[in-house]
Amino acid sequence: MATTCLVLVLTLVMASVAAGAESDIESLRAELDALRAEYEARLSELEGRLDAAEQKVAAAQATAPTTTTEPDTAAITAVAAATTSSSSDTVTSGNAFNPQISLILDGNYYHDGLGGSGSSLIGEAFQPSQPAHEHEGHEHSALANGFNLREAELAFSATVDPYFDAGAYFAFTGDDVEIEEAWFQTRALPHGLKLKGGRFFSDFGYINRQHPHQWDFVDQNLPYLNLLGDHGLQDNGLQLTWLPELPVYTLVGAELLQGDQERFGSFVVDDEHRDELGLSDRKDGPRLISTFIKLGPDLGYDHAMQIGASYAHNRQHQEEALAAEGDANLWGLDFIYKYDNPAPWGQRDLTLQAEYLWTRKDLLVRSGDDAGADVDLTTDGYYLQGVYGLAPRWQMGLRYDVLGATNQIRGATRLDFDQSDRWTVVLTWVPSEFSLFRFQYASSDILVEPGEREQFDAFWLQFLLSLGTHGQHRF
Amino acid sequence: MSSRIRSLSGNPGRRYQLLFLLALLLVPVAAMSAQTSQQLEVVASSSSTGALVRELGGEQVRLSILAPPDRDLHQLQARPGMMRALRRADLVTSLGADLEIGWLPVAIRQSANPAILPGRPGYFEAAAHVTLQDAHGIADRALGDVHPLGNPHINMDPERMATVATALAARLAQLDPANGKLYAERARDFSARVAARMKTWREGVDPELTAVLYHRDAKYLLDLLDVPLLGLLEPVPGVPPSGTHIRALNERLEGQHGIILYTPYQPDNPPRALARASGWRTVKLPLEPPLDADGDAYLAHMDRWVDALSGPEE
Fold this sequence. Notes:
Chain A is an alpha+beta fold. Chain A contains six helices and 18 strands. In chain A, helix 1 runs antiparallel to helix 2 and helix 2 packs across helix 3 (74-83). In chain B, helix 5 (104-110) links the parallel strand 3 (91-94) and strand 4.
């Protein structure tokens, strides 16, 4: 606009100059040159002011994104109209709905050769440490032969204020609602620090923090299912993570958790029975600490990798059958590699994932014949899995998981047990970002009791539908 | 024996010490790498805003790009390497309007860098600085993975990118006032080059030409050059075409002369099937300029698209 005005003025001036044709051409030319120089100077000055105005606008928007621009100069508003279409600096709908809501429907048709009991059996593979059956809540793994609605997960997440993000995840099963997660996390701490508090899935290992609908297979692997239970390491507490500025992605974290665990820190709830066994009362929380480190070397755009090591310690663990108590330790190593092919819809993408978990419970027998003796219960487990994009929207996965490669009692008695293992294949069809169907077959060989094995086949047909907010593509 | 076990159960304490020592070791390394240089650290979600950053920032910025040009920006995952780059960024630039919704917000949140959170000066979304086509449409997912905020593929519109460059220059100036004038000058220079190029582009385009796209991604360019868009291979965004859809599309193309445009990450078969049926030619071109592109390389990249639209003569 300013430029056109100036051009207009210039032509007018030139016209009037031309009208006075009496004067000498040379002096006219000199005058014109002078004029041009003057206007050029003015133009550049105006442009400079325009820039300043633009910067002012940007600054005003940054500091007060909701207030309209100050009407101190016409230039500012003009520039604002020219450069921005909205009053805000973001148009990503992440901020459009508060909170963001999503609902995930997770159902299946299931059949196994044991009349449906196979689905809970894979979570009860024999290990010397036996859960105290404290938790009566819903079990992800318990399915009937036939149709099942595993869960409907309702998730809310939002930025609360400039300081906190928060999220809440509810799992609805047939007759039960459970708070899977309800946490807040800081946004603005300096030096790469983040503090999280509330109820959350621990960042121990890799798969632990994933919700069931984020798994690459219908069900959880044997080591997590048996060593940590249906929900994995899920607890109330605090988490501090630190992402230092390093040339290699490095995340260090520590968690302080209440320690109410089904498997890793179990507790005999019944008072009388506990007294009979000579076991102590519940210690004050927090009883569980966990630490982890994750490294993600940069391998370019096609490849990505993360390796992690984790350790957790629960200072109170009771074994009802042994009348023993002590503490529990858990070590974990995780490895994940992803190949991302540019081909559409996951074709030729490859994911390799492996974790190793090792737990030992160091216990003291409180009553009975062995009273006063030490017992160590050690069980480990691992899984290896790979998922490959066969075609656009079609993935094939293979998993081998083992519980109890080391499966032993040491101390007062010395006993060794066999391992349980399983092979699983899965075929996944992803029609769109918001729906997914799976066919899965597993052949399990589970140690039910020492010397007693159960071998069975199981089939799943799963559907997963995502309603609402666009999912997050987390690594 | 019990003492042996006691000592074992005492181990965790020592393990914490070890972890603590490890953490202590990391501190000086972190401090070393935290020493900021004079350059602005800019992370671009893709090479198109990256090209603008390189053009305007020149020597004054250090740029890293999160997604290579051959990837679908809808589909990426927030990888550890992205978090590492974002962790020390002074500015993150994206195309925005939900294009990178699946991964960029997660990566930003996980990078623990408050300076680049949405709403802060360190967060720059190109789409916020231009008007978008198809905004405020029906947010119905029966219509696929729709963007109710509007078509986010503004990198295919050099004029809008020139507007974005002006806004980006102001943002760079806000973060680095000492070089503010320089950024503004470079933005003006880039806009002038776009304007100059527009003339030759408009003249080059075959006036009879019509086009079919796979996805609505090159719509801005077609509109800019007045090339009518006759249809999309995708029935709705994010859903692959069926045979019936391609046949129906082909019927609509009868008697027209045109071109089928698609990008490297979109499947080859549907465009080829339509090409066989209609006799139209197909052209496969990336939406994003090369990783090392600056302003000129971005314009050269747009040249390739315009060449495709300027008729079959070699």
